[in-house]
Amino acid sequence: MGAQLRVYKRRIRSVSATKKITKAMEMIAAARIVKAQRAVAASTPYSSALTRAVAAVATGSNDKHPLTTEKKNPARAAVLLITSDRGLAGGYSANAIKAAERLTERLRSEGKEVVSYVVGRKGVAYYNFRGTAIADSWTGFTDSPTYADAKRVADPLIESVVAGSEEGGVDELHIVYTEFVSMMTQSPVGDRLLPLSLEKTAEAVEEAEAHDGKPMPLYEFEPSAEGVLDALLPRYVESRVYNALLQAAASEHAARRRAMKSATDNAEELIKSLTRLANAARQADITQEISEIVGGASALADATAGSDR
């Protein structure tokens, strides 16, 4: 039984070391969630103002811009999937990938060829393992994205939409990311970014007005509404991609914190279970030693009594 007790003690030390690691990762993720939430909040005023401006320009312009004009028979659609660079975040990346797969199937059922763009090593690894072609990918910044990262992602996507399927580009751009709802809830969502839906943009502006209590400002366009639209639409797409990256980063940290908390709790339960088993083994050792001592003393007493006779 002594060997069994040593095994239990060794496992308790191992699980305790793992518990320290998961607890530290939980605390780090919790701190990063706050930073990510602040980044999302800081980007909201710019995104809201830009959405209002784009809605005003698009409404006042009669020009058919490639980023706002829907084609009658779209042939190709791009899907931008945002996952994480690192694991240990529960089902965060897997849920985003499943949402992208559902969107891809729906687009293919509509007769569209799907072109995949991926952010994050987890998504890249999944597509490489499945043998799915990736038009472009970006890694190394999913936990703390910057606006420069969003611009680097958005630029080739905008160029592809402007080119159109006739010139090797795409007719639509969809984005799949994980929306941060709360510390306990993160939901994968899929949105169509381009061509820009003026109806949805107008609804977003109305919601922002109702929330802020401010009417939509009047704009004067110089040199023309078309020229301003050419300048604003790329910024609009960049801001939407940036917001999606920030939402995904906050969701990743929340999912990792929850996964590490679960791992820490499981480690504590395992330590308690192993401790009970170790105590039972120790008690069995003590009981066996007492039995051996009592048996030895009894045998010695019997031998002494026999020699006296």
Automatic annotation (TrEMBL):
Q: Which domain of life is it from?
A: Bacteria
Name the UniProt key words of this record, in alphabetical order: ATP synthesis, Cell membrane, CF(1), Hydrogen ion transport, Ion transport, Membrane, Transport
Spell out the subcellular localization from the entry.
Cell membrane; Membrane
Q: Give the matching SUPFAM superfamilies.
A: ATP synthase (F1-ATPase), gamma subunit
Mode of membrane association: Peripheral membrane protein
Q: What does the UniProt record say this protein does?
A: Produces ATP from ADP in the presence of a proton gradient across the membrane. The gamma chain is believed to be important in regulating ATPase activity and the flow of protons through the CF(0) complex.
Under the subunit heading, UniProt states: F-type ATPases have 2 components, CF(1) - the catalytic core - and CF(0) - the membrane proton channel. CF(1) has five subunits: alpha(3), beta(3), gamma(1), delta(1), epsilon(1). CF(0) has three main subunits: a, b and c.
Q: Which family does it belong to?
A: Belongs to the ATPase gamma chain family.
The cross-references to PANTHER family, in alphabetical order and at most eight, read:
ATP SYNTHASE GAMMA CHAIN, ATP SYNTHASE SUBUNIT GAMMA, MITOCHONDRIAL
Name of the protein: ATP synthase gamma chain
The root-end lineage is: Bacteria, Bacillati, Actinomycetota, Actinomycetes, Kitasatosporales
